[in-house]
Amino acid sequence: SQDLAMTAGKNARVLLDNDKVRVIELMIPPGGKTGMHSHGDNVVYFLADGDSSQTMADGTTKTRHTKAGDTLWSGPVTHDTTNTGKTPAKALIIELKAK
Amino acid sequence: SQDLAMTAGKNARVLLDNDKVRVIELMIPPGGKTGMHSHGDNVVYFLADGDSSQTMADGTTKTRHTKAGDTLWSGPVTHDTTNTGKTPAKALIIELKAK
C-alpha cells in the first residue's frame, strides 16, 4: 500500500512518528493531488476551508467542502485526494497505529 | 482523575470522541487555566504561538514557549496549564484510548 508521506512528497510533513501514532501536516496547492495512498484508522483535522474530490481505490469519486476545524474519523481506506479549490488545502492527519 | 473537557469548561470543545480517540480543541484566554486534569497517551498540536506554564500533580512547574505547528507527544500525565502569554492559547489535543 502507498504511504502518504511518500506519495505527497514535499506537500506532506511528518510532525511526529512513534509506535502509537503518526501525525502528518498536509498542504496541497490548488489543483494538486496527494497521489493514491492508504491509511489505517485515522483522524483528519482541517486547518483551512477547502474543496476536494477523492478517488477511491475502486475508482468511485466523492467531492466535499470542508471548513477549518472540521474533524473527520476514518477507518482503513485507500484514496487519492485532489484540491479542487482555489486556495491551498491544509489538514492535519493523525494515523493511529495498530497495537 | 479530572477530565479536561470538564475542568476547562467552555474553553474546551470536544470535536470527536469514539472508542479509539478523542479530539479536543482548547482555547485558553490570556491568564486562563485549564484546571488540573489527567490524560492518557496524547498528542498536542499547537494552533497558535504561545507561552504557558504547567503545574504538575507533584506541584513542580515548567514554563514553555510554543509555536503554531509544534507537535508534542506525552504519555499519561496530570497537570494544570496556565496561559502566561498575552494572546489566546489554541491547541488541538488528541487523546488515544487504551485498547
Give a written overview of the molecule:
The structure is a homodimer of 99-residue chains. With 99 residues, chain A is mainly beta. Chain A has a single domain (4-96), classed as Jelly Rolls (Sandwich). Chain A is 4% helix and 55% strand. Chain A has one helix at 4-7; strands spanning 12-17, 21-28, 37-39, 42-46, 50-56, 61-66, 71-74, 77-83, 89-96. In chain A, the strands form 2 sheets. The first copy, chain A, has a 5-stranded antiparallel sheet. A 4-stranded antiparallel sheet of chain A has the order 3-8-5-6, with no helix packed on it. In chain A, strand 5 (50-56) and strand 6 (61-66) form a beta hairpin. The first copy, chain A, is globular and about 40 Å long. The two termini of chain A are 19 Å apart. The interface between A and B is medium-sized, with 17 and 18 residues.
User: What would the CATH topology of chain A be?
Assistant: Jelly Rolls
Strand arrangement, major sheet of chain A: 1-2-9-4-7
The strand count of chain A comes to 9
- The CATH architecture designation of chain A is Sandwich
What is the mean pLDDT of chain A?
Answer: 95
Helical amount among residues of chain A, as a percent range?
under 10%
Helix count of chain A equals 1
Largest sheet of chain A: 5 strands, antiparallel
Shape of chain A: globular
Structural class of chain A: mainly beta
Q: Which strand-content bin applies to the residues of chain A? A: over 45%
Succession of helices and strands of chain A: HEEEEEEEEE
The name of the CATH superfamily of chain A reads Jelly Rolls
Radius of gyration of chain A from CA coordinates: 12 Å
